[in-house]
Queue: 2 jobs
Job 1
Amino acid sequence: MALPTASSDERKPPSPLITWVRKFLQAAGRPLFAVILAMVLGMIVIMMTSPGSIFDRFNNALFAYSTLFTGAFGNGQNLSFTLVNVTPLILTGLSVAIAFRAGLFNIGAAGQLAVGGMTAGIIGFTFTSWPGWLLIPSMLIGSILAGAIWGGIVGILKAWRGAHEVVTTIMLNWIAFYVTDYLIDGPYQTKHGADQTDALPAQATLPHIASFYNSTLGTFLPKIVNATQYLVDVGFFFALAALIVYWFIVSRTTFGYEIRVIGQNLKAAKYAGIPIKRNMFLVMAIAGGFSGLAGALQLMGQAPYQLIATAFSIQTTGFDAIGVALLGRMTAVGVLLGALLFGGLREGGTIMQLNANIPGDLVYIIQALVLFSIAAEFLPVLQRTITRFSSRSRKPMLIPATIGGTMEVTNLPTYANTDEDSGAAHNGAEPLNTANTVDSEPDAASSD
Amino acid sequence: MQERTAVAKTAERESPYAVEMRDISKGWPGVVANDHVNLAVRKGEIHALVGENGAGKTTLMNILYGLIRPDSGEILINGQRTHIGGPRDAIRLGIGMVHQHFMLIPPLTVAENIVLGHEPGNVASVYEGKKARQLILELSRQYGLPIDPDMRVDKLSVGLQQRVEILKVLYRAADILIMDEPTGVLTPQETFELFGVLRGLVANGKTIIFITHKLREVLELSDTITVLRRGKNAGSLVTKETNQAEIARMMVGREVLLRVNKTPAHPGPVVLHVEDLHAQSDRGLQILNGVSFDVHAGEILGIAGVEGNGQTELVEVLTGMRHATSGKMTLTQIADGNQGKTSDITLMNAREERRIGLAHIPEDRRGSGLVLTDSIEDNLILGRQRWPQFSRGGFVLLLRNIAAWAKKLIQEFDVRTTSAEAPVRSLSGGNQQKIIIAREFSSNPMALIAAQPTRGVDIGAIEFIHRRLIEQRDAGKAVLLVSAELDEIRSLSDRIAVMYEGKIVDIVGEDATEEQLGILMTGGHL
Amino acid sequence: MFLQVLFRVLPSSDLWQASLQFAALLLLPALGGVISERSGVVNIAMEGMMLTGAYAGVIIALFTHSLLIGVLGAMICGGLMALVHAIISINFHADQIVSGIAINIAALGLTNFLLFVQTGGQGIPSLSDALRLPILSFGPLTNIPFLGAVLFHQNVVFYLAILILLGIHFLLFRTNIGLRIRAVGEHPHAADTAGVNVHLVRYSCVVSSGLLSGLAGAYLSMGIAGIFNSNMTAGIGFIALAAMIFGKWSPWGTAGACLVFGLGEALSTRLQDSGFSPNLLATLPYLLTLIALVGLVGRTTPPAADGVPYEPGTE
């Protein structure tokens, strides 16, 4: 490489603290920035629509936010409500994340969830005489398989017919919503009402964690007081287990390695002889399985333990999951944190509406802002704007390029580039040499 | 067509220079592409801009054409100082650029492509197809560039597509033409025609600047030369008064070894046997028409030919990335000079082939050979992730083994990096190629296929790679070298197979002359 | 039983009139999508832009007591949402699908939020007739049997939609602007070097799609329903998306798809007593699009540079 640049071996190695801070910023910098930015903008929205002086408005906004946070995590009961939301968000978040790893955009989590929930319901409503230890696993497995099929269809259509998964998942979502509505209003409608099914038999339901604890470990350890107000069910543990399964698949298996290559550089995958079609199908099936399980846990874990028509299409979990996966940068820990945030927002929003009289829909706005912040390359563009003002200097950047760079998000597939090389990814600070990609390689950080 | 102002005309008369770029600098974070570069091109001249990869030639021309703005410096066109804020400014000044990668829109017609952006009438009006066609036919007659305006551009040959690009530039009344590596994708015949066209344009009063790294063409076509090295001026030459060696020396700054020292080969038994391969291209055309050859252990067989005669597809078929429609390939294991098991690899995919000992250095290293956003460690096991030393049962990754493997290779091949977990794109181009070579060579293959191994790599690293290839040959491997660089083929190969229109037309020895090879490469016979 | 009802319903002009009404509702956002995607910007935010337009139209009309200003306001608000999408996608290189999803979520949140705040939680009253988009009736032509009721007695927006359809086809394929739009959508880099202002073209197209979706929203709330309800678009934007794809990104193809889907929707409400579940019928547009994608109706390929952000070397 012929250009004179700073060579990394010539500088002293940075102190461990700086390295740690840099690594943290690299990993969590963009998501944190996104969330903070969204929160600030949300505050501005509240302020714009509140009455009174600037000071009053600011106070009002602060109060609204405080109810938002206490509503989400403030006390044990609220926390447990939040965790109820978090369970399906973790699973659907993982569903979206694992597909992203392979370069596939799974917008179909909602439909896969519906199909999974419906299947679990059908099994539960049909085999009411089965004992719990048989019924529950059957329902769970059934929901996973149903979700896997619903997701697998997308994978097959993409791999063998080149049908873009963004469109197929959206189509399958609506098909799932209407088909489940048909079933709920039709063959599985309860005789005691309309637009809903029967409730599940008691042995098909999952116990609440607090009650479960009281009746097992609580017999010799201190009991939880007022256990019935803590509504989170054991489905939460399944979600945590799913996180571990996800982590294992993606970072510890050859399958995970192969889908990561597919997601980052399709040409390299072909070069390496990785079976692309088969892996696309498998990853979508696994993604569908995660969401299907979410559907089952939703049904089996919380009252009224029945399916209600149009509930699936109204639920925003499927789209929330996209935010969770992106915010969490497709890692297990990230998805957990993202799910906690979005679940908390959802729950806190309801409390905020009650206590501060700010409509809970603000949460949607915050969510959308988070998505915008993540998807947009705000930081790199900011960097470029700053450099333009300081363009006379040839010294390296003030903000290290690492904060804006290395985002799998910039490699998100689009209609057009499904077969193309997503390997030459854009580093935020990398100039686009528009005429010739072979001649100059200014992304080199060290000399040859 | 454009008009010039009276002021500009006076300046024109006064200055003999069509283009002057003075003290141009352009840099990006951590990189300086142009460092106080000067360029002066006289009117009616063919000027060659020469330099290694990364020397800054394309950046400089992009600045001239307005695609990039310089950090400092000034540009004078026909003696007048100008500000070029974008391609539209450049076009108004009479500058046109023909890019290396054509800027054509496939589903649109020739006419639509040519007039786009300067449509007859104004922007807001109806598209006047007839007028466009008329204007184009006129132009094509005037400059001797016959073309059919109503053909869809994606149906044209590469040479014709380039012609459309040239017409685009002429349509915008360009007097100064910039051509970026114009002959890279042309056959020798098309190159010959192009040179004729360019000389004709100059006779019509145009000025031409062309970027190239092909020194032979520089000597044949240009009047004057500017050499860039590492973003700075390295020298200006008058073509008549210089030679290839001098230009190369200016480009690199030291004496360049144009040929590698190698001892004679001692070929052993046949390792790779290819028989009557046929295959289709992505467009469904027959691209391999019965390719046959053998590669022996301990020899380098070079496949020479102009790009586009099936070499890329041949490599894809050999490495399991494309299916042959008929024919056979086999790989024979050699141990201590003795023949071992022969496997039929015709139907094997890339993964299986690696398993039995075929290594592949891809021609598209940043595209196929590496996952740029992935770590060095991960890239070093690419294609071999299911091997027992890297994964248990082919399923669970053995991370410790992988890390140790990476450490070993980084040391052995002297890859400059701070950590094995750094993403591969943080490495320089040369180091990236080293990763690929380290990976492919160290798996102890039986046969090695190297496609365009030094494309886009600067001269220093080229020597390194050539030496390593010879090493592999001397260690008894069968090496198949596919390259569009005739010098490389002649310097490394023990035998040379020439490919033309999907067939091996002849296999000659290492002492074949360039003339002989040229005849074979263009379909002739010796 | 189903076939009986079907054959009874098919020749009724009422069915076809409703089909065309719904088709027009789909056509506007779908055409917006066509323009946007032809210039290379993926747009799945029709749903959100429509919803915004639906709300904005009603609120502004109520506030200004003017139908015209309400409709214009709806279009402008739709355009503003599209502008956000454009800025984020074009200038900030956001993934355009994520941006589209964010717009949809933001629209839902924003319209509900404002609905609560601006009406003090009371909800919106229905629009008086003066503020509703009127039905145009072409006098004597309505007496033609069957066709009279179907074609000459439709909401004013229906006729607007037809004009817009013709206009967009002409624009895309017969004008210089259209040539540039198509060029930018296929190969923005080439268009840039030819001197076309890629960003300007894309911004214009995306904002136009917002204007069209906003108009459709106004049609829904001020023309068809006469009121605004939370989340009243309920998936219509996605059917429009499907129509654009099913119609292969061509204006006339999209119009055809909208007709088919419009018919499906009108049928599903009229076949309710036939024993065939309206829910299953409602899956028709989506199933058809899936089938089209599987390639049974020929390849569905979008413009080559659709969804790929472009950064010119200059600003």
Job 2
Amino acid sequence: MTADLIFYALALLTLLPAFWVVLSPNIVHAGFALLFTLFGAAGLYAWMGADFIAITQLMVYVGGVLVLILFTVMMTRVPQSGRKLHGFDGLVPPAVIGLAILAVLWKVITGTQWASQGLGEVQPTTAEIGVNFMTNYIFPFEFVSLVLLAAMIGAAILIRERKQGDDESANEDTEVSS
Amino acid sequence: MTVGLTHFLFIGAVLFSLGLLAVMTRRNAVGILMGVELMLNASNINFVAFSRYVEHSINGQIMSAFVIVLAAAEAAVALAIVLALFRNFGTPNADTVQSLKR
């Protein structure tokens, strides 16, 4: 019973800020709402007994990705950078598409007879995940580390300072309409 | 009603729809990236839920660890692109960057 209550609290912590991520006109508020959503998701992983994934979520998402996102938001701040809302015209078609997809997913989730065997026995997963990374999943593991290296080098190359004269022609025909 | 697999699947479905909505409605490129992160989290929740409720094995959790790593790499590259965009165009909005168009 207590576990159920904790689950519902975590679900609210995940879903309510997610609405704010989508609907907030202020992108900084959306970023901080994303913080709570990611915390809630980490709590849900912990609730299910996936301790390694929960801690990884906290370290990588909350400690890394979210900080990067907030940095970028604050470095690219221009006045009125939010959404342009002409009444609700701009929001209706996406909302219809989103609700349609949610309806389809809801139909699938409720209509399927899942082979659920209940929550398995909860035990530490870190050692098992580590062994699997080094045996069954050795190729994806190495491949993903290569992808990370490539992404790091790519990001560094993308944001390096250009030499003078490089981007003069690029700046001539750009149009800033904000 | 006791908490089961469908509860987690429902959370995943709602998160995915919200992420899709953010991708479709946000003009700011960072907002679009936030929507992508929401969708990746939805898939992660589903992976872990199936791993814990149906298969009782570790494979789903390993898959979600890979998803987290790829999301981090994707966020790094995407934010570098947004910063380069901001330096060249003076705006982080995705719909004002159309110099190829004319």
